[in-house]
Fold this sequence. Notes:
Blueprint: H1 15-21, H2 24-38, H3 42-52, H4 57-84, H5 87-106, H6 111-126, H7 128-139, H8 145-173, H9 176-196, H10 210-218, H11 221-237, H12 243-250, H13 255-280, H14 285-301, H15 313-342, H16 348-376, H17 378-400
Amino acid sequence: xxxxxxxxxxxxxxxxxxxxxxxxxxxxxxxxxxxxxxxxxxxxxxxxxxxxxxxxxxxxxxxxxxxxxxxxxxxxxxxxxxxxxxxxxxxxxxxxxxxxxxxxxxxxxxxxxxxxxxxxxxxxxxxxxxxxxxxxxxxxxxxxxxxxxxxxxxxxxxxxxxxxxxxxxxxxxxxxxxxxxxxxxxxxxxxxxxxxxxxxxxxxxxxxxxxxxxxxxxxxxxxxxxxxxxxxxxxxxxxxxxxxxxxxxxxxxxxxxxxxxxxxxxxxxxxxxxxxxxxxxxxxxxxxxxxxxxxxxxxxxxxxxxxxxxxxxxxxxxxxxxxxxxxxxxxxxxxxxxxxxxxxxxxxxxxxxxxxxxxxxxxxxxxxxxxxxxxxxxxxxxxxxxxxxxxxxxxxxxxxxxxxxxxx
Length: 408
């Protein structure tokens, strides 16, 4: 296995040649993910929605934590199912479930009902990720996987950018539109998945056990280093959907400003991530991931300078987001291909779910903890974000030392 993720026969291909060589399945996933992410309205605006409903930061933290616990269950279940029953079946099951669970949250009237419905949203919305990532690896040759991951992230972020802009406008009118749109787009992606995608690699009931995959992961120091570095990085990502919304509110800006700002994140990725991936795909992955995580930490840390009364505060937040987004574009496409290169073929779903667990663990803690810390010590929150980026950088550099020519 080549740890640089680059096949010599295609190392010198141009971007256009790489894109033309991608299998049809990649473009089907592109379409489905774009539609789905365009309609992912509710979670990014959930903090503002609950605030408008009169709930406290602590209430919001509980709801996010419940959703994240559901997401953890989604990774455990989705990782095994994607290896056992196939990628297509797992995606269809998850996405149809998501289409049904979102209206339940819309009808919630108190914190207990929000906790239950958010758990169901978390487990259904998250379960398709291991299957989707594993299917991508099943059908794309190793040397083109960084480009393939960049392409599907392009769909995700282009959809997110358009959806956030639309969501900000819709939220100003009526939050009900967000819940309906989220459910409908999940159902559309489910139909695309079950009618147009292949099953991908499957394994037996016995070989799909988590215990086998966990033992394999525990022996892989590259995976262990990435797992913990990514866990720290997820705490940075979730601040943009929780604490930064409060920061912008304190600076005097409304929901639409937040929507347009986050749309900018998606547009930057849509324009620049694939070209950046063409540079990073020729590099040894851990140092590239390390640089990306460090930039994410710097981006969060810069928010420390955006305080009420500072005339350029919105500009500071925008610059911070650009730096953060640059780190995201450097790290995430190559990270997806790197983890794929570490996973045995029959364990890809569970390896992908293992990485997904870092996102859900971060989701369980980071939004609520960030909001609580923002209310009591906002400067500590932003500088702490910088510290997390530095530690994540150090972990990835440690994992790369002396192993550029080592088979992981």
